[in-house]
# Entry
Amino acid sequence: MAQPWMLVLFLAPLLAGVVSLVVRRSRVSEYATALAAVIDLLVSIQLLREALAHRLIFWHNYILLDNLGAWVILCVSIVYALASIYAVGYMRLLDEDERLPLFYALFSGFAFTMLGACVMNNVGVFWIAIELTTLISTFLVGFEREAESTEAAWKYIVVVSAGISLALLGTVLFYWGGSYVLGPSYAMTWDALHGSAAQVYPPLLTVSFLLVLVGYGTKAGLAPMHTWLPDAHSESPAPVSAMLSGALLNASMLGIARFLGVVHGTSVSKFAHSTVVGFGIFSFVLATVFIVRQTGIKRLMAYSSVEHIGVQALGLGFGGPLGIAGALYHMLNHSLNKSLMFFGAGNAMRAYETKQISMIRNVLRVSPVAGTLWLLGAVGIAGAPPFALFLSEFTILRSGIAGRYRWAAIVFAIFLIVVFISFLAHFRSMYFQAGPEPKVRRLPGAVWRVVPMWLAFVPLLILGLWWPRGLWNAFMQIYVGLTGGTP
Amino acid sequence: MFLAHVSSLQASIFSLLAIFSLLLAFVMLGSHWLRNYVYAFATESWLIAALSAAVAYFGGYKELYVIAILTALFRGLVLPYLLMRIVQRLNVRREIHAVLQPSSSLVVGALLVMFAFVIANHMNFQASTAGQVVVLALTIMLSMKLLGFLMLAVRDEAVSQILGLLVLENGIFLGSQILVPGMPMLIEIVILFDLLIIVACFSMLIRYLVVHAGTTSSRELNRLVG
# Structure
């Protein structure tokens, strides 16, 4: 019975986009988008339940709803819902009222393509969906039409399309390798690739996997292919930053996770896991260095995204039940927490009219409620208990210590401390350092900008105190689906 | 497998077309003039279209004829036309501050092709004619990738960067016609379509760049660092 729900999932953002374009009233389009996003969130919970019960394939093998895809759909829809509520309050501040319908149409289109990528069963069509997310989000990144945002949009599209073309080459090579087993023409599904992978000539499989990893890694923001990410995240409007960071990176990580599943059980599996761990630890360390020296508030958040994508890659690379469960839990927690952080950064940016950390002072005096939420979010994203990221990072650390990559786990643990200190040092200066009395505007529509922060914060706290049994079982089911249950 | 039954005549036709495409990538690498890049790219696309048609004829893959026509039409005519219009509107005729001079980038390009050959040789496990064609196709596929990245790295003009991206994709097209002619066709059509969207995006972005940043050279894009 999942088909009707799937239809709703995709029709809601599509309709919201069409309505925004046709009606051309900014008020109508913002409410339509928020409504569609909330509907998507509810539907995605239902879809996850259905996907945990059965793995569904339909529409001539093109659509696959499995537990992993449904999990990423849930993470994407959460960010979509939070960001479109926040956008109602935020985008009105930009004085671009006549262009807002276009913004919301693109916003829904962006969500639509990301959700689409999660259910693609054909590897080539998955690639196309990821490429489409780039095309649409470029215009969202450059929406403010400032010189900086144009520069960021340009770098984004050039770097990401160049990177993602490597993933296409890898996909073609995977198909070619499979054609020796399955014949010259076959449907390029994830199952078909996995079924043939064990018999493909190993060097060919290695090169294909590396190309795909670098390709989707570019889109996911793994260092050293992350160069577009700080620019795009810092220059786009805050709701878009949240979508890029909390949703888009997850959709690309899905590609990496699925390809790790494809090569699982072959002779290159060990090598594949090692490279993913390598990229993960490199991203983590590099992002930490940039966090220490950061001066821009949104760039700080962007490098924190590189860091957390590195953590997810570490979880996937460590593998095993703990590693996979940690990575998937981290995906959800990071989506919630990073949305909260970008919302807070957006508020601060609008209130103080600057992106410089050194110009933002005495936040608590300016906005007691939203400021407190933002500070608590910062404690959470730095990896401190009782917030959810602590649990997932700790799980990943445990899997690393227990497994083959103990050195990576040790580096990870050391740099976690560095991140904690340096990230919170920036927040200490913004909250408690004496500075000039801020001259701050009172901005209208604050409710829209604070409610989504609560909506992100409360689950973050709950998930940090209590890891629901149902979620753990879901992760174990995904783990078995990816690896067949063998380590 | 289509390549298992390939005759030596067919193998030489494929090889010839593939090698000429690679040479045209070098023409792009060795020239200062934006106009030359566009011409070389158009010719390269026509050669790839001819290759698709040849594979379709010898291998009996009828759908590849459609791809040949689409490639010639979109990548051989429409894209070069759009790019030429951008070149004329922007009034940039040559690459002024390339990081590497054309002569040195040719040398680097040659080294990259050698590297691609080494990798391709490792990936092949067949002997005989089929193996030779496979190695050649893989070499050209990978080296056009690398050359495209080289162009992206050493050229500053926005138009050259778009062309670099297109060369990246041309390599994949060329290789996939020879290696996996039976690949489901849906993908190729959408890629052609997708390219049109890319050019639309790019032309808009270039306009933005001129208006707001005052230049189309990526060298000036240095506001966002750190």
Notes: The CA atoms of residues 185 and 257 of chain A lie 25 Å apart.
